[in-house]
Amino acid sequence: MGHKEPLLLSQSNVNSAYQKFRRYFRRVFKFEQMDFQFAFWQMFYLLAAPQKLTKVFRARKNFKSQFARDDPAFLILFAAALIITSIGFSLRLSHTFGQFLVFLVLEIFLDCIGVGVIIATILWYITNKFLKPKNLPQDVEWGFAFDIHLNAYFPPLMLLHFVMILFYNFFVREGNFFSIFLGNSVWLAASIYYVYITFLGYHSMQILRKINLFLIPIPLLVIVYIITIFLQMNVSSIVFESYYSNRLGW
């Protein structure tokens, strides 16, 4: 009988991952060592042409023997974007400073990091367990799975925390068919962005099979979108009035 590789990482791989993790976070406060111009470039293409980033992932693997980022510049800029958009969000909703702090903590540690850890861990397990050929020694790195989540989260952040809040009254307060149509379309675009960039991230590894399974949520999202338009359900109003308010009791 052939030998089957266990999914669990060997001790040497665990030590290697731990060393990469330490090196990464040691650089968080060393701004002179970060390439912010390259990080800005990645953010721009995540919005304009996310498929171009697949070449970046492959190049990183060729030059640095890992898919996951080793430069915290993207994380720093991502955190800055999250803070700035949250400030605008709280100003628009007339939050007090205390409410803003609670809102920011929930946005960072629950919505972004907490949900991201869950999604990254589930997809990391599924890709290594079911989509990777058993005879390949290379595994999908958990750090890369979380990187993919951050990449996929950035366009929805810009759409829902920046574009949406600029037109808050139109999308949330108006309630007519045109505002519901446009507002729900923004939510659909944000959701498709997340799914598509997630697909591109795992597709860039070129070792996974049946990778098109990652695109299955897109037609389901379109169906839900059509239903909300038909029933004139204002997704923006439901989310902003319920999720962002009721979860904090405001």
Automatic annotation (TrEMBL):
Source organism superkingdom: Eukaryota
Membrane topology, as annotated: Multi-pass membrane protein
Keyword Magnesium: no
Coiled coil: none
Bilayer-spanning residue ranges: 36-53, 74-94, 100-126, 152-171, 177-199, 211-233
Pfam families in the record: UNC-50
Keywords, comma-separated and alphabetical: Membrane, Transmembrane, Transmembrane helix
GO cellular component: Golgi membrane
Annotated compartments: Membrane
Keyword Membrane: yes
InterPro entries membership: UNC-50
PANTHER family for the chain: PROTEIN UNC-50 HOMOLOG
Family: Belongs to the unc-50 family.
Protein name: Protein unc-50 homolog isoform X1
